[in-house]
Specification:
Layout (H helix, E strand, L loop, with lengths): L1 H22 L14 H11 L6 E3 L9 H10 L6 E13 L3 E11 L6 E12 L2 E10 L19 E2 L11 H12 L4 E13 L3 E11 L6 E10 L5 E8 L2 H5 L4
Antiparallel strand pairs: 1-2, 2-3, 3-4, 4-5, 6-7, 7-8, 8-9, 9-10
């Protein structure tokens, strides 16, 4: 009898186990909703060109350039003859096929009678060590292109000024005159980068390249060319301020 009961109980357990198994869902679990991975999320932004085409103005001008900026400049211009170039500062950067760097540089012709000049030198760095020269364009201090004056303004008697240090104009008198001129300008705060040129006319006319920030609800940063006259008695007048036409200087000649 005991054997019969044990056999019945064993059979009931087997039936119970079979019922439990058939109650569980047999279909595969649903696929999770697809979320963009790091790779797929990057593609639309890159294809849309969200970060391409625009130049970003450098907001920090130091008297001593970073070693990496100097090394990049020298590698790009290695082997170039005719003019000896010296980088002063990075004016702006642009994300395009790597990164473009727009340098403000001085240049001296390698001739019997050397001639000094200011230049905008554009260098591209695709990756570390993969560096190339994109464009070099001289800033004619008698014909500086601004957004207000795309064709420049040809004036006689202008000479290339001493570079000084980025962020601090060479000479105390020059700095004082600039500060006096900047105070006369409403709506923008200027920080000098360098004096591009001077002209001796009953005192001295100055053309100064500066970084400016507008005094608006949403301040905008731009490069400016500030021209003014400093009289022999220390007075400052005839102040003009216009946005530096960086696009002209970074665009290669056709």
């Amino acid at each position: 009898m005991k054997k019969f009961l044990m056999a019945v109980l064993a059979g009931m357990m087997l039936v119970g186990c079979g019922q439990k198994k058939t109650e569980e869902p047999t279909e595969a679990p649903a696929e999770p909703t697809a979320e963009p991975t790091a790779e797929t999320a990057a593609e639309p932004a890159e294809n849309a060109g969200a970060l391409l085409g625009g130049w970003t103005v450098n907001t920090e001008y130091n008297s001593i350039m970073a070693d990496g900026d100097v090394a990049r400049f020298k590698q790009a211009l290695e082997g170039l003859t005719g003019v000896g170039y010296t980088p002063v500062t990075v004016l702006a950067t642009q994300v395009v096929n790597g990164t473009n760097y727009a340098y403000l540089a001085t240049g001296t012709t390698v001739t019997a009678q050397p001639v000094d000049g200011w230049y905008v030198v554009v260098v591209n760095e695709k990756s570390v060590g993969e560096i190339s020269l994109v464009n070099i364009k001289q800033i004619d201090v008698a014909d500086i292109h601004t957004q207000d004056n795309a064709d420049g303004a040809a004036l006689g008697g202008w000479t290339v000024a001493d570079t000084g240090a980025a962020g601090m104009l060479a000479g105390e008198d020059t700095m004082i005159a600039f500060e006096a001129a900047a105070e006369k300008l409403l709506g923008v705060t200027l920080n000098p980068i360098t004096v591009l040129g001077t002209q001796v006319v009953n005192g001295t006319n100055y053309a100064v390249l500066s970084l400016g920030k507008t005094s608006t609800e949403k301040p905008e940063l731009s490069l400016y060319v500030t021209k003014y006259h400093a009289g022999t008695d220390g007075t400052v007048d005839e102040v003009e301020n216009a946005v530096f036409d960086l696009a002209y200087y970074v665009t290669p000649e056709e």
